[in-house]
Amino acid sequence: MAKKASKSKPKATATKKRNPFKISKQNKIILGSLLILFSIALFFSFVSFYFSWEHDQSLLSEFKNRNEEAKNLLNKFGASISHFFVYKGFGIASLILPVLLCLTGIYMFLGLDKKGLAKKWIWGLLFLIWFSIAFGFFAVESPLLGGLVGYEMNDFLQDYTGKIGVLLLLIFGLIFILVRLFNVTPEGVAEYFKSKRKELSADFRSARPAEDNDIEDDIPLGIDDEEQVLVDTYTHKEEIPHLNKEEDDFKVTVPKEDEEELAMEVEQIVEEPEEIDVLASKLVDDFGEFDPTLELGNYKFPTIDLLDAHGVSGGITINQEELEENKDKIVETLKNYKIGIAQIKATIGPTVTLYEIVPDAGIRISKIKNLEDDIALSLAALGIRIIAPIPGKGTIGIEVPNKNATVVSMRSVIASSKFQKAEMELPIAFGKTISNETFVVDLAKMPHLLMAGATGQGKSVGLNAVLTSLLYKKHPAEVKFILVDPKKVELTLYNKIERHFLAKLPDSEEAIITDNTKVINTLNSLCIEMDNRYELLKLAMVRNLKEYNTKFKARKLNPNDGHKYLPYIVLVIDEFADLIMTAGKEVETPIARLAQLARAIGIHLIVATQRPSVNVITGIIKANFPARIAFRVTSKIDSRTILDAQGADQLIGRGDMLYTQGNDVTRIQCAFVDTPEVAKITEYIGSQRAYPEAHELPEYIGEDSGTSVDYDIEDRDKMFREAAEVIVIAQQGSASLIQRKLKLGYNRAGRIIDQLEAAGIVGPFEGSKARQVLIPDMASLQQLLDNEGL
Ligand SMILES: Nc1ncnc2c1ncn2[C@@H]1O[C@H](COP(=O)(O)OP(=O)(O)OP(=O)(O)O)[C@@H](O)[C@H]1O
């Protein structure tokens, strides 16, 4: 079939090219003029036929005889053709034929659209028949008016319907023509009469004062003298109350709405190309579309063999015994509570098996839901989750963990066609659902992700799965990560891809942020980046990053105006609770701002936390993170905080997770990617040619920079001296250093730094950079403090 179709295609185009019916413009002019002239000839011969037919009729058989001459204007030709059309045809109505032919000629001559012409022909022929029958009916005595067709048709119709029937048919024909062709409606006719009356009365009124009484007498006005034109003073409507008999002289003609509908040729509007478009298309023609990946044109995406299969070669192994056992237990338990089951079905997933049950009619769902703990007890298994009812299915689901869970390897999900073929901006393969389908979502659509789970339940593996997915799908030019890792060990492996995939503040040494104080600067810098990007989007008159980049690739945005290809930025914060504890409100504000506004400009946040308590995941943060993942948590309250539903406390850990992006909660087994695998991937990418620097974020200069604080020596912190020593020894003016070495809180360390600045030991705040230490060694410090009288 497909073959056939593809074969027939070129043929069709070939015939299209050589269309035999297509008449060239010259031929159209020739043919058009021929038709016009022919129609004129016809017209004259038809008209003159009426004056000469008696004489010419006898000559019809003498057509070839050159000595005989007909009286018709077009001689024997005219006599013959007129005889055919007028006498044997349609009578006087045949005059419509030359009109139609003439019109066709004009259309061809001028090359007008043929659509309107067809309509005219249809109406013309209808008229031809109607007139022919009408003349045949009314002018029986003069058969030349109706022609043979008119006569015969009358005869035929009258045999069946009688005279009255034919008359009614003719009236119907007339109404049909008036309504369809001239759009005549009763209201239209009434309106016409009204306007005519108005005109009349106006004429009378204007004529009256100028006229002498004598003249008035002489000229019949058609209105009785006494009957004045009444002017309704209220509505200003003028009325003529009665028209006298003479009014009959006025002929009423129905207004004809332009009899012939003029065919209009609509010329295609060709948008004038804007100067910028012309330039852009020229640039694209010359250089091709802008390719952001060109700078690292030889970049090779990580290969699948860098990932481990984790001993899982085939699919899930089904343990029939276990299935039967669980089924029996469920049926029995429910029976104990007098709940009968009409049907039961099992779907085996990698970690849990879903038993879908249809209870007997009349059983209340809440009853089963309340038995959750009892069922779990009788099945002697952890992690039973009851979904009553399963959304969109009308059944009740009981998820029972498998005795031997199957590890879902990252390799299997990355290799899946669902992920490979995913046409998403930022595709993430999380793992497999309960029905063993690969679960792929678009981070760009989420647009931010909140992850929570008690320690050791698979959060870090989850984060790695997210990052790995993106590394397998995205070129270094397309996405940049900002990694915040207070635990300092989880994400260090990504240091190797710093110059490929990471973004950092200018002058900061490490791309992966492990110091909570620096997070604030990074977040604020991201806010600046966000504002800058919005500005660029506004200038480019586009609504989101995708449109912007498409426009930029098409070379419609001039880099000289500050436009550049904008990569997606993914900010990953591993231990959010820790960040909130140390930096509090200072981070919450920029995070909330980013979460609220950054979706359109391609900045996406992934925030993971161990403690999903309400003071960490505040309302404002929750409201802006519609996509949430819960690994196993310790309490129902935590589950509610993160998912707005319970269930996360029932998970079995080791990557067993619940995902929600709104209402539905999906249970997924997170793909497992081990640290050595991440090491191999980062090694593979890191060993390739990279950009000279990590992607640079805009510089952020803190509000308090440059403000030299004056502290009274008496008010100095008790740990001031120790802090000064720490700073001078390390030659690094950072609050976090004091925090770590002296085990102080963030706020206190910050205050000490300010006091050190006031004492002239460290320099002023320099944005993301550590403050400069102004004292070179311990001896100088000692001297300074002694001078102060301490
Ligand atoms: N998807 C998974 N499949 C199989 N095992 C997993 C999975 N995820 C995690 N695990 C197991 O759980 C262990 C702990 O996981 P992970 O380090 O991700 O926990 P975590 O939640 O990050 O803990 P913490 O918050 O303390 O860092 C892993 O070492 C691994 O053995």
UniProtKB/TrEMBL annotation:
InterPro entries assigned: FtsK/SpoIIIE/SftA, FtsK_4TM, FtsK_alpha, FtsK_dom, Ftsk_gamma, P-loop_NTPase, WH-like_DNA-bd_sf, WH_DNA-bd_sf
PANTHER family: DNA TRANSLOCASE FTSK, SPORULATION PROTEIN RELATED
Localisation: Cell membrane
Pfam families in UniProt: FtsK_4TM, FtsK_alpha, FtsK_gamma, FtsK_SpoIIIE
Keyword annotations of the record: ATP-binding, Cell cycle, Cell division, Cell membrane, Chromosome partition, DNA-binding, Membrane, Nucleotide-binding, Transmembrane, Transmembrane helix
Name of the protein described by the UniProt record: DNA translocase FtsK
Annotated FtsK domain residues: 436-640
Binding site for ATP: 453-460
GO BP, sorted A to Z: cell division; chromosome segregation
Statement: the UniProt record of this protein carries the keyword Phosphoprotein: no
GO cellular component, one term: plasma membrane
Ribonucleoprotein as UniProt keyword: no
Membrane topology: Multi-pass membrane protein
Family that this chain belongs to: Belongs to the FtsK/SpoIIIE/SftA family.
GO terms assigned for molecular function: ATP binding; DNA binding
Record field: transmembrane: 29-53, 85-109, 121-140, 160-182
